[in-house]
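REQUEST ID: PR-0412
SUBMITTED BY: lab tech R.K.
PRIORITY: routine
TASK: structure prediction, single protein chain
INPUT:
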Amino acid sequence: MSSKGSSTAIDTIAQEANDDPEAGTLTDGFHLVIDALKLNDINTIYNVPGIPITDLGRYMQAEGLRVLSFRHEQHAGYAAAIAGFLTKKPGICLTVSAPGFLNGLTSLAHATTNCFPMILISGSSEREIVDLQQGDYEEMDQLAIAKPLCKAAYRVLHAEDIGIGIARAIRAAVSGRPGGVYLDLPAKLLGQTMDADAGAKSLVKVIDAAPSQLPAPDSVARALKVLKGAKRPLIILGKGAAYAQADNEIRALVEKSGIPYLPMSMAKGLLPDDHPLSAGPARSLVLKESDTVMMIGARLNWLLSHGKGKSWGDIPKKFVHIDIEPKEMDSNVEIAAPVVGDIGSCVQALLDGMGENWGAPPADWTDAITAKKETNIERMAPKLQNNNVPMDYQGALGVLRTIIKERPDAILVNEGANTLDFARSIIDMYKPRKRLDVGTWGVMGIGMGQAIAATVETGHPVLAVEGDSAFGFSGMEVETICRYNLPICVVVFNNGGIYRGTDVNPTGGADVAPTVFVKEARYDKMMEAFGGVGFLATSPDDLRRAVNEAMDSGKPSLVNAVIDEKAGTESGRIGNLNPQSVVSKK
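STATUS: complete
OUTPUT:
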């Protein structure tokens, strides 16, 4: 049997049971799963059909759920993960057993690492066969494999437990620090039948799945004391702050305190990037020169050099850390004032404790930041306005920067190496949760899945800015974009390789270098092949015209943006992790 087959014995068994005149009114595992999801206001499913869940997808659609089928489970999972981030409800990814489950597992781990609520639901082989290792079709102990990579994992064996199983998965995904949850549904479960009334009573409506967690008053007072004593304070906003949707409270805290803030990439737009207190263009200065740093929904992980080292300079720092997870405190450096609770409650408690006469930070600190910002912005401006042919990253991203400013409701999805590194510092955001990228794990391949879920969940158009290498991980999903006629414009920054297209085979052999792609590749033709609109852009002016036309049309579109093959560098943290070596020459 192929895992992509369309008929199952399960469906036949369930149908025969419902047709039995002496059986009374029955329901089955298929419909109990659907009813449990609908009861909890979960109405969108991201999946790849196949045995044993093909018919479940069909029944879901027949019952009014929106079921979007992808070409690969990993991208369906990335869609579900970012749906969770955008909605604060667990995104659902539905996969087949074994290989399909494994494909979805990367996205489940990605969701857990990034604290996105997601549930991976996979069909599986029967326990009695798996446990005796008797060689069932796609046999695998999926629950055991999933457990180390997610926040919680559950298996449902009996139809009457489906309601409880789904309720537990929902609560685990969204409560406390959100994350990924695995739910194992053996094939036989879906065909089980039970009395319909008893089935309805077995379902569970999850009440207050993510209750407020108020900070201890002493912790709030301690944090305010540390902030009050600061001479050069800084606020760092992480994607946890964006997820919290406490936008008004966070803005009020920044503006009332007068403390400059630095947004991490997916927190950009919580306050507009052109806000007077934004320290983004002076990142190096504020990290090195600050004496007190308040982290809101951010972690001192590799993205912030673990809170130490040359990026942070030599000035001793006190840290105030707001996080819902107590174990996050002191993970890398000593936290002088831990504030444990949900971000909305913690920020409101700080606001309430500040009183009416808080006072701004010393003017010499804020003036120094403003001066550095102005210098850096002035230095960068000519680079962003260049009209070089072939394009460099600055000229191309300068165009997209303007387009996003003119379309602040559009959602930007961004991944790549140079394409990501440059874009997150060049493209300003003006509204919260409008920038989606690779997140904490730095995973390549999130692009098309995130783009699809972003427009499905919000109704807003999407501009997906992709490096050519990053696009290769999920490029086949342009067919999915066209199939559902989604308002997504994909821009592929095509420099013919990973980092750059100029590397050569040091042996002089026929094979190209490991980092080099096909020269003059036409990614735009891929979109055209499935009925979308393709554009070729070789200059910033071409790019401006193409992207504006694509965004105005609302049609699936792809712009092949030709970047100078020499423009890229081995970028960011990845470059730092690669040992530098010289290839010996004979």
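NOTES: Residues 1-14, 578-586 have pLDDT under 50 and may be disordered.
REVIEWED BY: pending
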